[in-house]
Amino acid sequence: MYTIRPLRNSHLTTQGPVIFYQSKVGETVSIAGWIFLLERAGHKYLVDTGIGQPSDVVRKRFAFIIEPGEDTLGLLQREGIAPEEIEGVILTHLHWDHCTNVALFPHAKYFVSSRGWRDVVEAPRHPLLYPARSFPPTVYQHLRESGRLSLLDDEDSPLPGIRTFWVGGHTPCCQAVSVETASGRAIITSDTVSTWEHLEKNIAPAALFDLPQCFEAYDRIRNEAGIILPTHEPNLAARY
Q1: What is the DSSP letter of 108?
Q2: How many domains does the chain have?
Q3: Which of 16, 78, 138, 204 is most buried as measured by Cβ atoms within 10 A of its Cβ?
């Protein structure tokens, strides 16, 4: 069984329709960005790697705020963990705010959706759908050249007690991560389920590639998860 520690890497306040598909017009909403530290019998893994320093963020489309100590290295240092101790990194998808820091982990094996890698990196049918400001080519180059990239099937088990399954919806590379814990099965959703409200009210994320895939993912996650961990839920720490 694993323990899961969500670590807040950033936060953002913006207009409702930026986060909720055709919803919350005229409203202001807040989200957070999380990385997830998984531990089992002395082994340490991460789900997503977060974004870089504030200087890296101001050039991006969304003005995410990183508080002091919330950078990825600072978060791990607070937990008493060095980057060299991370044995594996599972990426829920290839957006910049989830994969920017992959190079921090010199010994980690990287786990990415095979379908997503093909459609986003190797053979995109419509390259203009994957602008560098959101899909960082330098990260993909590092993954390719590291010799530690493992591409996962739509249904896979990359590590003991961990399953991944492709969900799509938000991006063609989105996969959810199912983790067995002492409190039950937890699913880290990827941004296809960005917050609990998306799931509870059946609202898709504003940034999406396939609307039906979002709702199919919602159904599966509801059916399989005892604990649901959306990757941008601002109140994640309060519920768990």
Answers
A1: P
A2: 1
A3: 204
